[in-house]
Amino acid sequence: MAARALVAAVVLCVCAELQEARGSGGDAPHRRFEYKHSFKGPHLSRDGSIPFWVHTGSAIPSADQIRITPSLRSQKGSVWTKTPVSFEHWEAEVAFRVSGRGRTGADGLAIWFSAAQGLEGPVYGAADQWNGVGIFFDSFDNDGKKNNPAVIVVGNNGKLVYDHQNDGSTQALGTCLRDFRNKPYPVRARITYYKKTLTVLINNGFTPEKEDYEFCTKVDNMIIPPTGYFGISAATGGLADDHDVLSFLLFRLTEPGQELPPPEQEIPKEEQDKYQEEFQNFQLELDKKKEEFQKEHPDVQGQPLEDLYESVSDREFRQVFEGQNRIHMEIKQLNRQLAMILDEQRRYVSVITEEISKRGTQSGQAPSQELDTVISTQQEVLRNLDDLRNTVSASVKQLAVGQHENVGGLGSYETVQHFNDIKEHLHVVKRNIEHIIQKNTGPAEKPKCPELPPLPACLTMAHFVAVVVIQTLLFLVDLFLKCACKCFVCFSLNMWEKLGLFTLEDVNIFSLKVNKV
Questions:
Q1: Looking at the structure, do residues 245 and 341 belong to the same domain, yes or no?
Q2: CA of 456: how far to CAs of 4, 451, 459, 467, in Å?
Q3: Which of 189, 147, 192, 193 is closest to 170 using CA atoms?
Q4: In what helix (H) or strand (E) does residue 40 lie, and over which residues does it extend?
Q5: Same domain, 69 and 190
Q6: Which PANTHER family would you find in this protein's record (predicted)?
Q7: pLDDT class of 142 with cuts at 50, 70, 90
Q8: What are the angstrom distances between the C-alpha of 184 and each of 190, 205, 207, 419?
Q9: Domain boundary among 227, 254, 281
Q10: CA nearest to 133, candidates 107, 166, 168, 105
Q11: Is the Cβ–Cβ distance between 7 and 352 less than 8 Å?
C-alpha cells in the first residue's frame, strides 16, 4: 500500500509539473528592487568605499567593478551588506568574471546568505560554520574526480565544517557542472528563494544576452535564517585567478494576492516643492539657452520632421523582431521548465527505485503490478514530452520561415543556432527518459549472455612424452642410415680406385654429388 501511494503521488506531481510547463506557470511574484542591498557600476566607488557595503581582505573596489581577489597566490577577500535582510522571499542577480592564464584556476567564488558576516575565513575567503546557505563556484578539483568547475549549493546550521578535500560533494544539496572561467561576456547567476525553494539559474557568458539563463539546480524545503547578510567572497591558492564582481542586484519578492511592502519614507512636501521649483527654473534657463543658440546660429537647422516618425518598413521590421524575440523568450522559458521537470523526474525515479528495491529484498521480488504502474507512468511522461517537443519544433519552423522572408536578417544566425540547441536538449531529454524506462523494466526482460561451450580436453603428459620419444628415435635412425650409406659409398669408391676401375677425378666428382645428396 505504501508503494502504491508513493506511485500515485509521483503521478500527481509529474502531471502538475507538465501542466505548469504547458501553461503560463501561474502568476509571477511581485519584484521590488532593494538598492540598499545592491551595487552596480558605473560610479560604484569614488573614495574607496562601497555604499551600503563593507569590504575586507584583498577586495579592491573600483568605478565599474569590485575585484574580490587579484591573480596572486594565497589571497582572500569579501564584501558584505552593512544592514541585515529580513525578506521572506528574495531573488539575487550576480554578474561576475573569473579569468586566469592557466587551464585550471583556484580556488573559486562564493555567494552567501548568512546570519552573520563571515568577513574572513577558510571557505572561499569567508568564515566556516556559517548559519545559512552558500552557493560556491568551485574552479579547483581538490578530490581529483574531474568534476570541476562546478556550482555547489551547501547549507549549514552553524555546526558543519566544510569538506574541502571532497569539494563539498558529501554536503552538497544541489550541484551542476558549469565552466565559468575565461568567458567572453560576464557570467550571471540568478538565485531565487521563493516558498522555501532555492533555485539557481546560470548564464554561461557565451552571448551578450543577459536573460539567457539555463537551469542549474533546485533545492526544496530549504530552511534559512529569517534575518541575515548577503555577501560575496573569493580565494586563491597555489593557482590564482582574478575574481571580479560587476553587479549584485537584490529584489524582494511578494506572493500574488498579498499586500505589497510599504514604500520607503516619502519626501516631505516642502522638499518636493523645492525640487519642483528648481526643476522649473532649470527648464526656463534651458529654453532661453536654446533661443539664444538659434539666434546666434540661424544657418543650423534642426532635425528634419520626417526623421521623427518611423516609416512603414521600419515599423514592419520592428514588429517582426519583437515577435521573434517573444517566441525566443517563450522557448527559453519552456526549455528551463523542461530541465526542471527532468530533474524532478530523476529524483522521483530514484525514490521509487529505492522503495521497490527494499520491498523486493524483503519479499524476494517487486510486485509486477507496481512495476507496470511505474512503467506506464513514465511512458505517459514520455508521450507528453514528445508533444512538447513537437510544439517547439513547429514554432522553430515557423520562425525559420519568417527569418528567410526577412530581408535584413539581423541576428538570424544566432537565433537559429539557439533554437537548434534547444531541439538538441529536447532530444537529450527524450533519450534520458527512454533510458529510465528501459532501466526500470523487469529483471526477467533483460537479455542474458549465452553460455560458453565446453572446453576441449587437454593433452596429457604421458602422450606428450611418448610422441617426443618416438620422434627422437626416428630422427636418430634416419641420421644413422644416412651416415652408413655415405660411409659405404666412400669405401666402395676407394676400392674401385685401387682396382683401377675409376680415375681420381671421377671419384672426386662422384663424392661431391654424394655429399650434396
A1: no
A2: 53, 15, 10, 20
A3: 147
A4: strand 39-40
A5: yes
A6: LECTIN, MANNOSE BINDING 1 LIKE (PTHR12223:SF28), VESICULAR MANNOSE-BINDING LECTIN (PTHR12223)
A7: confident
A8: 19, 6, 8, 21
A9: 254
A10: 168
A11: yes
Joined grid coordinates for residue 38: 545592491
Residues 249-270 have pLDDT tens digits of 999 999 988 887 777 666 677 8
Alpha-carbon gap, residue 126 to 131, rounded angstroms: 12
pTM, to two decimals: 0.54
- Between CA 501 and CA 55 the distance in angstroms is 126
Instruction: Show the domain range for 103.
Output: 37-254
Asked whether residue 83 falls in the same domain as residue 223, the answer is: yes
- Helix (H) or strand (E) holding 252, with range, is strand 242-254
**Closest to 384 (Cα-Cα) out of 38, 113, 20, 48:** 20
Q: Does 439 lie in the same domain as 468? A: no
Report CA torsion sign: 285, 288, 293, 299: positive
Residue with cell 512538447: 388
Residue in this structure with the C-alpha cell 523542461, named with its chain if needed: 338
The total number of residues shown for the chain amounts to: 517
Q: What's the rounded Cα separation, in Å, for the pair 220 and 237?
A: 33
* 360-379 pLDDT, tens digit each: 655 555 456 666 777 777 77
Q: Give yes or no: residues 41 and 158 share one domain.
A: yes
Distances (CA, A) of 469 to 460, 472, 473, 478, 481: 15, 5, 6, 14, 18
Q: Distance between CA atoms of 374 and 429, rounded to whole angstroms?
A: 18
Q: Where are the alpha helices (DSSP H) in 155-260?
A: none
Which residue type is seen at 353?
T
Is residue 437 located within the same domain as residue 482?
Answer: no
Once rounded to an integer, what is the mean pLDDT over residues 58-72? 93
Does the residue 456 lie in any domain? Answer: no
Name which of 245, 205, 247 is nearest 69 in CA terms.
Answer: 245
The three grid cell numbers given for residue 21, joined into one nine-digit string:
510547463
Domain count, the chain: 3
468 and 416, same domain (yes or no): no
CA dihedral 397, 401, 404, 405 (to 10 degrees): -160
Q: Which three cell numbers stand for residue 351?
A: 525514490
